[in-house]
Specification:
Layout (H helix, E strand, L loop, with lengths): L1 H16 L1 H20 L4 H12 L2 H15 L4 H4 L8 H11 L4 H59 L1
Length: about 160
């Protein structure tokens, strides 16, 4: 059981490290947070529930730090700056709070943008990995062919000298 928890923690850290997974986690967190804020759930509880909806331990820990900051009196947007190092989430939430639309409607374009960027990054990584594997496979085939033909050349030279 302990090994499973360690692997899960590693998977959570990997998900935050990979740019396309991080963008999808941000999208999921932001969308759930927007729904909860539109439903007038208290901010600290909404942050905790939105983080739990991502099912990522790293996001949950960061959200707990943000909730603790909000309990100390920090505004929602400033506290959530801990979740996104780029500061975009903080900026988007600050602007969405001033709008007449609900949070979900105000952030809908950003959510679509995050998904599009995540898809693009995932496809780029897949293409790069596939290209590297094809080139590696070609190098291995070339080495085997060179080895085979060098042995064949040595055998022919040996037969000619015999």
């Amino acid at each position: 059981m302990v090994a499973w928890l360690r692997l899960r923690g590693l998977g959570d850290r990997l998900a935050v490290w990979l740019p396309w997974r991080r963008k999808r986690l941000q999208r999921d967190f932001s969308a759930m947070l927007a729904v909860l804020l539109d439903a007038e759930v208290p901010e600290a509880k909404a942050v905790a529930l939105a983080a739990a909806a991502t099912a990522n331990g790293v996001f949950v820990r960061r959200a707990k730090a943000a909730a603790a900051a909000m309990e100390r009196g920090e505004p929602l947007a400033d506290a959530l700056g801990r979740l996104d190092r780029s500061g975009e989430l903080k900026w988007r939430l600050a602007n969405a709070a001033h709008g007449r639309l609900g949070f979900l409607d105000a952030l809908a374009g950003w959510h679509e943008s995050l998904e599009a960027k995540a898809f693009q990054q995932e496809q780029t990584a897949a293409q790069a990995i596939t290209t590297a594997l094809v080139l590696g496979n070609g190098a291995i085939v070339a080495l085997v062919a060179i080895g085979f033909f060098s042995i064949l050349v040595l055998m022919i030279k040996g037969l000619l000298l015999w």
